[in-house]
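thread: overnight batch results

M.L. [08:02]
morning all. the overnight job finished for the chain we discussed friday. pasting input first so we're all looking at the same thing
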Amino acid sequence: MTTTDQRPLGSPFSASSTAQDIVAGLDLSGRTAVVTGGYSGLGLETTRALTAAGARVIVPARRPDVARTALKEVKDCEVVPMDLTDLASVRSASAHIRDRTGRIDLLMAVAGVMATPERRFGPGWEGQLTANHFGHFTLTAELYPLLAAADGARVVVNSSAGHTLTGIRWHDPHFRTGYDKWLAYGQAKTANALFAVHLDAVGRRDGVRAFALHPGKIITGLQREMTLRDQIDRGWVDEHGHVVGEGFKSPSQGAATGLWAATSPLLDGRGGLYLEDCDVAHASATGTPMDDGGVRAHATAPDEAARLWSMTLAATGATPITR
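M.L. [08:03]
and the structure it wrote out:
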């Protein structure tokens, strides 16, 4: 996949489409989905929409009691304890899921963190790269046999326009020479996009296709590590926490692009693409405003994706997925 493939397809949906719009008329009976973060924010909207369309949904959750409470009215949904920053926990959850189902049709990596204080996990890994990328990489690798067993599985990874902030910092990916919470977030979101690029390259032989996406600007629990003052200063909310920023979506609208990625027939036979507003995003030039949309070349480059894949395999010891 190259940036020349990053051209909108003329989707019938748009930035204003909701989760309910995407699944209206769809029958997902017999399909099994795994949705990380599927109990709050965009993940909760995703779980609700998938189950409403007939899918069975498994929700790995760092806070399983909170997840079960949030999902108590949702049918055909199972919560599995899992912490993305603890790879032993990821492997344990994966083993439980493998024991419970013979295939996975959809794996949706919705959980994430943003602009967090400096945190270290494992052997000193930077926290946002660990939670957003290493954890999802390991989960996908452990569940890959179930994806390959499905008939045309899709993996959907939530990235962000934040990927425009930086490519992979090969010289210092774990910020050992000084921490910047926004660059760390940007790197993690670039990693999410590159993960989808290489996963699609290695998975397509098994019918496993992968996509990354920008869900749009939405105020959810993702901003929980930011102060109210920080959000006010950025023009996102007022002093009462009400959304006032231009172009912000509702959580249901924010979940729509991921659901479109998971179900749209327009994406049959395609993969490794970066999506936004329920369509394929255009390629954007370095230096253009983040809010203009699109995807930077550094987040879709196959050589960068392959290099990140190798680095992540070495770091995590995840089960290799080879061509």
